[in-house]
Amino acid sequence: MMKFADLIEEHTEELTALDTIDAGKLFYFGKVLDIPSGSATIRYYAGTADKIHGNTIKMNSEMQAYTLKEPIGVVGHIIPWNYDYPTQMFDWKVGPALAAGCTMVVKPAQQTPLSALYYAHLAKLAGIPDGVINGFGHTAGVVLCSHMDVDMACFTGSTETGRHVMQAAAMSNLKPVSLELGGKSPVIIFDDVDVDKAVDLALVAAFVNKEVDDFVQEGIYDDFIRKLQEQVKSWVVGDLFDPEVAQGPQIDKNQYEKVLSYIELGKKEGATLLMGGEPCEGKGFYIKPTIFTDDDMTIAKEEIFGPVMSILKLKTVDEAIKRANATKYGLAAGIMTDNLNIANTVSRSLNASIGWINCYFAFDYDLPFGGFKMSGFGKDAGLEALDKYLQVKSVATPIYNSPWL
Length: 405
Fold this sequence. Notes:
By secondary structure, the chain is of the alpha/beta class. The protein is built from 13 helices and 18 strands.
């Protein structure tokens, strides 16, 4: 695994280019963040591989016992195309599964298979035995979930597909599943913060991650809107290899049309369109950065995964908590405030699996990430991810005439 991590670092340029071409990732971010994070993740879990221990147990009778943590077996990994994927999901899922001693079949999204194939090539060069990391095409997802010889299914994707994964697992060998599903994460901006910093964070959260709602307190709402519009006017859409570009195309025609249909739905339902709302001129699946206001619209409730931002006005802390929790999802939340009491109160009150205070996308291989509610269950990253690929076996033996009972 250490050699595997070394090879990932040595081939950063190739892996970044593949994700840029295949997944529409900005080349700069891939080279600086995604691929280095991937090699660091593999290296982190390599360090855990020889630290998997059970416990010794003193039983109430004349018995002693211990527990073993054993690999769960064959794991089916089904990974998506969006956000930092497929690089981040490949490393987050393969790293701990390898360290736990599992074998696996990796099914990348059919839109983005290239970097996963290259990772498998590097794994082979690193000496990981044949048959430990396997892959297959677009028909593999259903098979991995329903096959009697697959011992666990790990899926990242939509809530709707997550239901099918659970159903197939239940109807086959009752394999455990780990699901990281959809999200519509609130970014709550209170009026005690620097507006320029708030705008920068909101832009990254909305137009890079593409699954957030911005709740802005009324004291800075108008100023926030004005400065946000000024920033978006300079937001460059275009060639992903150009370091000046901030946004690339949608992954394919289907997603392009889906995003445009949500924009039209927002207009139809009466949301106020501040800017954007249409395709870019020229070829390709490019959409102008789009900003809506108004609440209780479909676009403010459902996951779009496109450059569409909803900005909603709020008054009080209690209102912020109530409205941010009024969603079927519970993936993540952002909180911007200089008030420590507000930060603590809101972060503890939100029903989301991770709360980022005065930051966003604070990911790390040691920080567990996974959903609440209809955003799924099970963790990627951290030691919690390692544990999900292990099962606990208890072993008990009698003690005869021991002075220590």
